[in-house]
Batch of 2 targets.
Target 1
Amino acid sequence: MSASVAGHWDFWIDRSGTFTDVVGRDPSGELHARKVLSENPEAYRDRDAAVYGIRLHLGLANGEPIPAGLIGEVRMGTTVATNALLEHKGERLALVTTKGFRDALHIGYQERKKIFATEIIKPEALYDDVVELDIARTGARVMFMMSSGGLTAADMFQGKDAILSGPAGDVVGLVKTGKSGKEKQIQVTDRGLEALTRYSEIRERLLVEATKVSGLSQDDLSGIASHLRALSGYYEQAARSAATL
C-alpha cells in the first residue's frame, strides 16, 4: 500500500543475521509487516535488506529512489554487531573498563561446566587490548547501558551486563536502576510504560490480522490458548521434578 502525498510512513526494523523484519505504519495509521532475508545480493541491488523492505511497503521497485518526505521516522535494532563479536569477525576490539578491573572478564565467575576436568580450556577473549580509566579522578557521574536497555551507575555495572542482545535501538531510558540497601532494583520509567503499551497495541493488531486467515473462531482460539497454558504448566512441573532426581 503506497503512502498518501499528505502523510508519511514510519518504520520499525529488526535486522538479525538471517531475517529482517520491517514493520511500517502508513499515513492512515495502519500497520504492515514484512519479513525478508537479511542477505540476498541477487535480489537487493543495494545489498540492504532494511531498505528493500521499506521499498516493498512503499510499493517501489527494487533500486527505485525513495521520494524525499515520504518517510517520517525509521527506528532500527540489530544483532549483527553482537553476532560479529561472538564469531570474532570484523574489526579488532579493545575493552574499556574501570581501573583495576583489567582481568575481570578473564576471571569471570569461576564457573566450570565440567567440574572434574583437569585441563580447563577457556574461550578466546573477544578483545585484543584493555584500556583502564580512573573514573574517580574525573568527578563526573558515569552511567553505563546494560543489556536490559537500562542505565546504571558505574559502580553497579558488571561485565555480564555489557553485551547487548536483540534490538537495542531507542531503548535507553525505558527502565532505570536503583539500590535499596544491598538489593538492586529495576523500575520501568514513564517512557518505558508508554513503549510497552504501544508494543502491546501493535502486537494485538498484528495477531488479530494473522488469526483472520486461520479460519478459527474466538472460542477455538481461547481453547487453544487454554491448552497451551496447561501444557506449559505441566512442562514446568516436570522440569522441577527432574531437577530433584
Target 2
Amino acid sequence: MIGTYFLIFAGCGVVVVNVLYGGTVTFPGICVTWGLIVMVMIYSTGHISGAHFNPAVTLTFAVFRRFPWYQVPLYIGAQLTGSLLGSLTLKLMFHVTPAAYFGTTPSDSAAQALAAEIIISFLLMFVISGVATDNRAVGELAGIAVGMTIMLNVFVAGPVSGASMNPARSLGPAIVMGVYDGLWIYIVGPLVGIMAGGFVYNLIRFTDKPLKELTRNGSFLRSASPKHKTSTSKS
C-alpha cells in the first residue's frame, strides 16, 4: 500500500505540478520522475513485500507460481487502497483543473491506446521476469532495470495512452476525480500485456541453473550437446 501510495503521489503529482505551474517540470522530467519513484520504492520495500505495486504483476506472478494465490486479494486490495489514498492526497493538496487531470485517458483512438498499453506492459513484465525471477540475473540491479523500463515506456507511450501499465495507477485517479473515459483500456491492456510478457519470458527460460553452472563447460549449448557429454564421461 505504501509503495503504491508514493507511486501515485510522486508520479501523478508531477503531472499536476507540471500543468499548474506552467510546465516547469517538462515531459522528460515527468518520465524521469516515474522511473525514479519506481526505482526508489523497489529498493525501499522490495525486501519487505516484494515491491508489488501493480495488481496485474501480482496476478501474473501467481499464475506462473511465483506468488501464493491466497495473498493475491490482500495485495491487490492494498495496491488499490494506496492508489486511492495517493489520488485523494493530490486532490486535497492541489486545485486540480480538468487540464491537470492526473489519471490516464486515450489521446486519440481507444485502439491505439490499447495497443500501446499492451506493448509497454509486455516489455515491463518481460524485464521484471528477467531481473526478479531468474537466478542468473543480477538481483541488485532489479530496481534500476525496472525503473528505467518505466521511464522508457513513459517516453514512448505517455503522449499516446498516458503509459499506465498498472490498473491501480489508473483506477485510483479515475475514482477520486470521477473521470472514467476509456478506463477499461487501462485494465484490459496491462492485464493482457503483463500476462503475455510473463508467459513469453517463462517460455524462453531454458533452465533454472545459475550462470556459473551454465558456463562451467564454456557455454550452455556446448554443455548440452551429446558429443560433449560423451567426451566428458570418457575423461
